[in-house]
Amino acid sequence: MNKTNIHNKNNKLFVASIAMVVALALFVSPMLNVDDALATHNKKNKAKQSIDQSQSSNQNAQCVSGVTTFLSCNNVSFQHQKNSGNNALAQSGQGGNSAEQSISQSQSSSQNSQVVSGGDTISSGNNINVQSQENTGSNALAQS
User: Fold this and answer.
1) How far is residue 129's CA from residue 59's CA, in Å, rounded to a whole number?
2) 121 phi and psi, to 5 degrees?
3) pLDDT in tens, 14-33
4) What is the pLDDT of residue 37?
5) Rg (CA), the chain
6) 87 and 50 in a common domain
7) Which DSSP string corresponds to 8-34?
8) Closest to 45 in 3D by CA, of 56, 34, 54
9) pTM of the model
């Protein structure tokens, strides 16, 4: 036998050994799995999933002027949340399933503006807050 044939035989034996180890791992792993995420007919299943979004804005402005105050000490806040994803959960088992599932969005804005002016106060000390929330996804749950 030449050196090339021995090398090819060794490569084939190595590949066959790796394939056998992977096949054994795939066959045995479901039997050893104790994670509740694997739904079986002999277990109670518990699941908890959520999509949470939160935004906060805190603004403070103070102006003191001895003359006319123009376009000063304004607080502007724009907040937008969009969720277009889905939140899906499915369980199967012999009863005893429990599931908690939620999509929550929250926004808060705190604004404070103080203007002291010795003259006219023009477009100053305004608090503007624009908030929007949009959820176009679905929240589905199935248990059997």
Assistant:
1) 11
2) -115, 110
3) 666 666 666 555 554 444 43
4) 39
5) 32
6) yes
7) HHHHHHHHHHHHHHHHHHHHHHHHH--
8) 34
9) 0.52
Q: What is the pLDDT of residues 33-79, one digit of tens each?
A: 333 334 444 467 777 878 888 889 999 999 999 888 898 999 999 98
Name 134's Cβ contacts closer than 8 Å, sequence gap at least 6: 80, 81, 82, 83, 84
CA 130 from centre of chain: 23
Q: Are the C-beta atoms of residues 120 and 66 closer than 8 Å to each other?
A: no
Range of the domain at 102: 36-143
Q: Are 43 and 36 in contact (CB under 8 A)?
A: yes
Same domain (yes/no): 28, 41: no
Pairing of strands 98-117, 46-65: parallel
More confident residue, 6 or 114: 114
Say if residue 138 is in the same domain as residue 68. yes
43 and 25 share one domain? no
Distance CA 45, CA 67 (A): 70
* Domain match, 27 and 43 both: no
Residues 106 and 94 in one domain: yes
Q: How far, in Å, CA of 51 to CA of 119, rounded?
A: 51
Number of domains in the chain: 2
- 126 and 56 within one domain: yes
